[in-house]
Amino acid sequence: MQLTVLGCYGPYPPQGGCCSGYLLQEENFNLLIDCGNGVLSRLQEHLDYRNLNAVILSHLHADHVSDIMIMRYGLEIAYKSGLRSKPLPLYAPGTPEAEFERLPYKNAYAVNTQVPGTDLQAGPFTIQTRTGIHAVPSLAMRIESPSGTLVYSSDTEYYCDLEEFASGADLFLCEANFLEVDIEKSLPNHLSSAQAAQIAAAAGVKRLLLTHHHPEGDLEVSLAEAQKYFTAAEQAREGEKYIISAK
């Protein structure tokens, strides 16, 4: 299983950066997780977007879905010209309803509601979902295949069930938009890097990859705060590839 970080910033990107988007590949199956601002352009450095097999959106905030509204034009042209034989399967939470209703576009996508707590089979990937704590419904994902397990927190505040959900993961991709000073101010909707690290330690994961960086944040401070609790913590880097293996 190979993860390519396409974008890892939110709620907006810094100069030259992208919002959330992750390409997960195994057995020639190409799964895109989130598709925020700039992700379509970055994706094409690694894969022809017309060769995507499925997309799953963690939640319907613009920094996670905005390029879905652009990719649909290319997919519709590909469908009409025979470069794609069927619409691209797209899975997303059904709420907010107004945002969900914007996803269908001609023959670009086959849109499906992903209900938290239900399993999804996408190629070699079995995907379990749980609801996090965020301003809109947000799906944490546990993605398993014969080679390994990836857990993605999506955007969320701390909740104790996330530790159990991430238990034993080979790679824990966890949002860390805040520093500890932000948590002390009781800012809502996100985790600090220290909280992500504490969850990783309690869950016994092999690797922790911090993501959803604030574009004006200090990544060195963020990493230092995380490494107090999980020494092997890393910051996600755009364009980097990560091999996920149970071995």
Descriptive key words:
8 helices, Metallo-beta-lactamase, Chain A, 247 residues, seven-stranded mixed beta sheet, alpha/beta, 28% strand
Walk me through the structure.
The protein is 23% helix and 28% strand. The protein has 247 residues and is an alpha/beta fold. It has one domain: Metallo-beta-lactamase, Chain A, CATH 3.60.15. It has a seven-stranded mixed beta sheet. The mean pLDDT is 97.
Average pLDDT, all residues: 97
Question: Terminal Cα separation, in Å?
Answer: 12 Å
Radius of gyration: 17 Å
Written as H for each helix and E for each strand, in order along the chain, the element string is EEEHEHHEHEEEEEHEHHEHEE
Shape estimate? globular
Which residues form runs of ≥5 with pLDDT under 50?
Answer: none
**CATH homology superfamily:** Ribonuclease Z/Hydroxyacylglutathione hydrolase-like
Q: How would you classify the helix and strand content by structural class?
A: alpha/beta
